[in-house]
């Protein structure tokens, strides 16, 4: 017999593309006959003859399809054939969008941006169209048991180890709360693993408010700070003696009930380390509500983080007083490790390639040198996988309608060659702030060397901006978009650019300013329309909190209990 579960028993649920050889030939007249066919002409004639044969069409179709896909991905490119003095000159043409030519585009468009500076209305006041969405409200508290209701007897102690950066740890914590509730287990305050990339030795209490976390979950899951004495004695005062279960990623609730619960009951304690992405997205509503409660209500930052973060938000609001206290925040992923990992090329030439090779080997030893691994920077750019540069972010925002009076906050680590790449962004947006400019050196001193705590400051300033811009994906923007939906009536108020389209536009130095603006404003409208999205079965609740964590305003059954001040959420 399995132990009691308060949430029921759900059903299981290299190198860049090589250049073609240059071929040189002459058209000679012989014996009064017409000009001799070139190699290119012969190939074209043969191609046409094969295609127009019935059987040839069927045989040739797969080759056409494969060639088209290779061309789209930037692996091959057409030859440009031109005639000069009867000589056929064949040269390579890069696929559209495969080159970094944003600086040339900027030089073309900058005079037009200057002409429009200080002449536009306060765009931040009207950037989001309130007519495109219905208002949603948080409704987690409607399912909260009455105060004082005792939890059933625990089936044992559940221990997890959260790894990764700030929001990877956040995901692990929230999923652990959901699993502990499912198993009717007591949850030990999650242990943080020292990540080789983040290198942050912070504990749970350094980043999150432990007392608040325990109190907020008291009617749903019992949480303890330390191992109980009887458990310590049973395992010789060594947590490593507690069995570490190997759980597959995205496991269903049924798996936990059938495989984990019996071992929990038998041994009194189980451990899962690491505990990252170990619970499926699609789970019963009772389990989802525990995720909602943990992420949006129980997890708030520690007191030291909240105090400085609140000051930084206030300073951004005051510096944006000309715009009604509204500002734009940008999650800029242009750190050296991100540029290296993307395998994209910019305008640094051989020096940049050498630096990126060193960075890739330092961070991911051997991964990019494996046999058969081919690096195609052009294909990556065409496919929208290259991190946007500060210059590209600035041009995009100016094209959307944000002028040089807009206050902008940049959430980022150490920008790659910041002096070079940040200069044009500051030129377009003089009211630019980062952690180092918004807070004093003395205020930031306790946070130095702790990347997760610094990320928490960025998270809070971005959370309360009128516009949030995501540029490269990852846990940070995904959690932030969900949190902003939870705060702002279901709308994420987030610009999520189409980077494939941007690659094409930024590879066109002859583009007209009016055409560029029209494309950017269309991109902004699509971000507005997609600001309100319901969660799909395979999507994350942390990015899409509707309808599991929120109700439409007309359907909210207890509006007064769901009205919460902004400072109650992670600030």
Account of the protein in words:
The structure is a single chain. The chain has 571 residues and is of the alpha/beta class. It contains 22 helices and 15 strands. The strands form four sheets. Strands 5, 6, 7, 8 and 9 form a five-stranded parallel β-sheet that branches. The chain has a five-stranded parallel β-sheet with strand order 12-11-10-13-14. A three-stranded antiparallel β-sheet has the order 1-3-2, with no helix packed on it. α20 links the parallel β13 and β14. α4 crosses α9 and α6 runs antiparallel to α9. It is globular and about 80 Å long. The two termini are 45 Å apart. The C terminus is likely disordered.
Q: List the uncertain runs.
A: 10-34, 70-76, 78-91, 556-571
Q: What is the percentage of strand-forming residues?
A: 5-15%
Secondary structure class reads: alpha/beta
Count all strands and give the number: 15
Proportion in helices: 40-55%
- For the termini, the CA-CA separation is 45 Å
Write down the Rg: 28 Å
Shape: globular
Query: Which whole number gives the mean pLDDT?
Result: 86
